[in-house]
Amino acid sequence: MYRGRVFDVELDRVRFPDGSVGELEMIRHPGAAAVLPLYRPGEWSGGDDAAVVLLRQFRYAAGGELWEVPAGKLDPGESPESCARRELEEEAGLRARELRRLTTVYTTPGFTDEVIHLFVALGLEPGEMRHEESEFIERHDFKLEQALEMVASGQINDAKTICTLLCAVRLDPNVALAATSDAV
Q1: What residue spans of the chain are helical by DSSP H?
Q2: What is this structure's pTM?
Q3: Catalytic residue at 125?
C-alpha cells in the first residue's frame, strides 16, 4: 500500500486462531536498537554517583520534545549491536568499550512488526556526534537515581527509554548495584 523511508504499510490477508479470515493493515519496520549510556560510580565528571546520558529530542508525532535514550533504525544487514554502537556515537557523541544486551521489545504489536533491541553501554569514551538534518537533539547527563525519578514522575514518557532504564536496573547486576535501592 505504501513504501517509505522509515516503514512500509501492507494489507495482509490473515487466518485468525478461530479459522476465520480477514484483512489487517500492517506497518513493516526493519527494527531498531536503543542504548542506555551508563557511567558507573566515579566515572562521571559530575560526581561520584552513577549517571546516564539522555537526549532531549524533538518529535513531531509527540507534539514536542521527549527525553530519550540514543536509538535508531537498523540499516539493511546491520546487527542490533552495530546499530546501538552507531547511534550511541551519532546521537550522544560517545563510544562504549562494553555493550550489554538487555532484551528485545515489540513497540506496538497491534499494527506493526517493529522490535527494538535494548542495550546498556559501559566504559564510555568520547566519540564524534553526527546528527541528521532532521534531528534536533540536546545531550544531557543525569544521575541514575534522577533519571529513575523522571520515569516515576512522568517526565520521561518515551516507551523505549522507560523500558531501557528499568530493564537495565533490573537485569544488569552492574546497573542494579549503581542504583540506589529506594529509587528502583
Answers
A1: 80-92, 144-153, 159-171, 173-178
A2: 0.88
A3: no
